[in-house]
Amino acid sequence: MDAGYDVMRLAWVLRDLPVELVGRLRSDRVLRLPKPPRVYDPKGGRPPKHGPEFRLAKPETWPEPAAVTLNDTPRYGKAEARAWDRVHPRLTHRSAWIDLDGELPLVEGTLIRLKVDHLPGDRDAPPVWLWSSATGATPDDVDFVWSCYLRRFDLEHAFRLFKQSLGWTRPRLRDPRAADRWTWLVIAAHTQLRLALPLTADRRKPWEKTTRPGTALTPTRVRRGFRNIRPHLGSPARAPKPTRPGPGRPPGSKNRHPATRYDVGKTVKRPETLIALRDSRR
User: Fold this and answer.
1) Integer CA distances (angstroms), 126 to 44, 79, 100, in order
2) Region label for 73, one of left (φ > 0), alpha (ψ between -120 and 50) or beta (otherwise)
3) Beta-bridge partners for 251
4) pTM across the whole model
């Protein structure tokens, strides 16, 4: 997920599920390292909960990484990844954690710094900071995490195709089962477009660029030429029979089975401070 989402909060909410969350962090974040081993102090006192600060913008605060990998990629050149284990934020009773009673948790994970030579088009590539909810990552796990994050851009284009071209969010369905069936129909339509890729000619619009030789067509362009190959494909279904719409409900009669209506809910403004929250409960 992108830096606009609180990946650490979601990781704590979904801590009981067998999932691993990966998110991008802003380059100005300040995190904490694991707490050092406890040393006996004759004065006593509470043991530390957090370790030293890890400022993403200041390399002098970075310790030695737990894992370092170097790979050659066809699109980005050399990709160097450095990983630090058990890095976590220092939480406070604000924002999403204001309603949590008791001591705040430690949400530890693996911090990854990814640096590539260039972006597609020979553009400069600033380093990318990623955070994974899994700890104890091996070098192979680190490469798997950042490679999955780079596939996020392909997934975003796929969801945009589902919504804009295939009408995934067009119908207003009331039953969750109907929504699931419609989703599977959209997936089946997308699968047909992928299978029809070698059979379709490029029918681009005047303002679009010409497809380079050896480059696959996008699903949107395949959809434009799909109607031309459909008459040449066989179908196991028989020819449709002529029919007419049903009579429907008689005029003037009431609907005896109205659809269930659900309240859309109301967004309540959350107090910004802990003192304001206590005052609102009185």
Assistant:
1) 46, 12, 36
2) beta
3) none
4) 0.71
Joined together, the tokens standing for residue 100 give: 């949590």
Residue 257: is it exposed, middle or buried by C-beta count within 10 angstroms (0-12/13-18/19+)? exposed
Handedness of CA 23, 2, 219, 185 (dihedral sign): positive
CA proximity to 277, closest of 10, 98, 115, 59: 98
pLDDT of residue 191: 94
| Torsional class of 6: left (φ above 0), alpha (ψ -120 to 50), beta (otherwise) | beta
| 187 vs 197: CA distance, rounded Å | 16
Instruction: Round the average pLDDT of the chain to a whole number and report it.
Output: 88
- Nearest to residue 195, comparing CAs of 233, 164, 161? 233
Tokens coding 241: 């029979």
* Tens-digit pLDDT profile for residues 30-57: 999 998 887 767 777 777 889 999 999 9
Averaged pLDDT, 214-234: 85
**pLDDT tens string 147-168:** 999 888 888 889 999 999 999 9
What is the C-alpha separation between 262 and 249, in angstroms, rounded? 25
Q: What are phi and psi of 242, to 5 degrees?
A: -65, 140
Under 8 Å between Cβ of 25 and 132 = no
What type of residue sits at position 269? K
The ranges assigned to domains in the chain are 7-137, 151-204
